[in-house]
Design a protein that fits this description.
By secondary structure, the chain is mainly alpha-helical. It has three helices and no strands.
Length: 83
């Protein structure tokens, strides 16, 4: 579950950066006013901060409650190799 949350957060952050880039280019060409540009930056900063917190929490939870079967399987494989 934490890996899924991490992946979703990364996708949301990337899409937000793409949207900011789009609005920035349109703002450079005066399609939008300067107000829209700064609101877009504030929005992406908020989404980016939230995504960063969620990604950090997901990594923390993955390390704390991660799948323990991998460690068990590698232990079994090493024990089988000792015969």
């Amino acid at each position: 579950m934490p890996k899924t949350i991490y992946k979703v957060s990364v996708v949301v952050f990337i899409l937000s950066v793409i949207a900011l880039t789009f609005f920035a280019v349109l703002s450079i060409w005066d399609v939008f006013g300067e107000d829209v540009f700064w609101k877009s930056i504030a929005t992406v900063a908020t989404i980016g901060g939230a995504s960063g917190l969620v990604m950090g929490a997901a990594k923390f939870l993955d390390g704390r409650y991660g799948d323990k079967t991998e460690a068990s399987e590698s232990r079994v494989e090493s024990e089988q190799g000792d015969y």
